[in-house]
Amino acid sequence: MGPITFDTHKFIKDLRDSGIPEPQAEAFVRAQQDILAQALDNTLATKRDIEHLDVKIDKLDSRLDHETSLLKWMLGVLIAIAAANFAKQFF
Length: 91
Known about the structure:
It is built from 3 helices and no strands.
């Protein structure tokens, strides 16, 4: 992510007007930019992060489809066995 931009000139001017010397105001603005950049770099998702999640979701979806079809097949066999046992008792 690129550097965070905001009106640094206005920020420095506001700090100067409140009585902070200009070198300290400039240092404060640079520190503020670094803090914002670090915070946003760690919390915002990039395009690559989203693409990576899409790939993971697709893999999980295909795995779930496979497991669901396997479960349906096993349930079908279980019902067939139960029906055969039931029919065996009465016929």
